[in-house]
Structures are given as structure tokens and as C-alpha cells.
Design a protein that fits this description.
mainly beta, Jelly Rolls, six-stranded antiparallel beta sheet, globular
Length: about 110
């Protein structure tokens, strides 16, 4: 078993085209010996957003702090700290931070998904 503090994991800028004001922390990943799933934390600055994108794999998301405007083909929906989301594979989506505070989200994805 490994235990570590999320704040001790290096936050790296997300360089994906279309992302702005986003960092990622690889909380549980291949380097930790995770055989099936990865846990990542994204921190999104006020006014920042992930790229609008889609991919084959699902992911489960938990809002740790702040407010999110979550775009999908259904339009904008809103989520806040304490909310959890399921994003099916191949669904185009984007997370934006419309609030004055940093948006922090946990994202769980299958190994090999990036």
C-alpha cells in the first residue's frame, strides 16, 4: 500500500492544445504500480478550461473544490464541490472554471488511457 499527500505530487501544466490554466497531478499511476486504473487531479484556474475533446475510454470525475461548467453534446451543465460525474467513452466534453476560486477535480481513468 502507498499513501501520499496530493499536494506533495508535482503539478504539471497541461500542454494539450485548447487547454488554458490547467495543471495535472498524477496521484496514482503506472509509477505507483497501479495495474488497472489511474487517479489524476486537475486544477483549473479561474477562467481556465480543459480542451474540448473525446476519447474511447470512460472516466469518473469528482469535484473536490470550486464550481465547474461542464460542456457535452447536451450543452452546459453545472457541478460543484461534492458532485460526481460519469463521462462515457467517445462523448465530447470540456471542463471550465467560471468561478472566482480554483476548480479541483479528481479524474479516474483506465490504465493505458493517457
Amino acid at each position: 500500500m502507498k499513501i501520499k499527500r496530493a499536494d506533495d505530487v508535482e503539478a504539471k501544466p497541461v500542454a494539450e492544445e485548447g487547454a488554458e490554466g490547467v495543471t495535472i497531478r498524477l496521484l496514482v499511476h503506472e509509477a505507483d504500480g497501479a495495474p488497472h486504473f489511474y487517479m489524476r487531479q486537475f486544477d483549473i484556474a479561474p477562467g481556465g478550461h480543459t480542451a474540448r475533446h473525446a476519447h474511447d475510454w470512460e472516466h469518473e470525475v469528482y469535484i473536490l473544490a470550486g464550481r465547474a461548467a461542464v460542456w457535452s453534446g447536451e450543452g452546459d451543465r453545472h457541478a460543484a464541490a461534492g458532485d460526481c460525474l460519469f463521462v462515457p467513452g467517445n462523448e465530447e466534453h470540456q471542463f471550465r472554471n467560471p468561478g472566482p476560486d480554483e476548480l479541483k477535480i479528481l479524474c479516474l481513468v483506465p490504465k493505458g488511457s493517457g
